[in-house]
Amino acid sequence: MFHSPAAQDNRRKGGRGRKTSARAEKLLPARLRPVIEELETAFYDACGDTLTSKTAKFIAPLARAIVTVYQAGVQEEALRDMQAQIAELQRQQGMPAGPTRWKPA
């Protein structure tokens, strides 16, 4: 195990992609990345060198927007994964693909 080619390859890679920011970026769908980049640019530009109460009032909504976009990305990815799992189960059980129609009781 320790000497396997896969283990050696992982050791060669080191800690790349292990930072929190790298992991967070992987969670974000590609179409949301430009939104995050714009929000982060505005956030860092607004912070400047000193943090005053006026600046804090301005950056708080930006920070909240950044969090909201990340949460939307995570939820979107989770939904896609669940839909893929459902489709695979339907395929395995020979059910037609598409939304499940529940019969009323």
Q: Secondary-structure element order, as H and E?
A: HHHH
Q: Tell me, what's the shape?
A: flat
Based on DSSP secondary structure assignment, what is the total number of beta strands?
0
- Which blocks of ≥5 consecutive residues have pLDDT under 50? none
Arithmetic mean of pLDDT: 79
Number of helices: 4
Present the secondary structure layout.
Blueprint: H1 5-13, H2 20-27, H3 33-47, H4 53-92
Helix pairs in contact: 3-4
What does this 3D model show about the protein?
The chain is mainly α. The protein has a domain at 32-92. It has four helices and no strands. It has helices at residues 5-13, 20-27, 33-47, 53-92. Helix 3 packs antiparallel against helix 4. The radius of gyration is 22 Å and the shape is flat. The model has no long low-confidence stretch (mean pLDDT 79).
Name its key features.
105 residues, mainly alpha, flat
Summary of the model, kept short:
The chain has 105 residues and is an all-alpha fold.
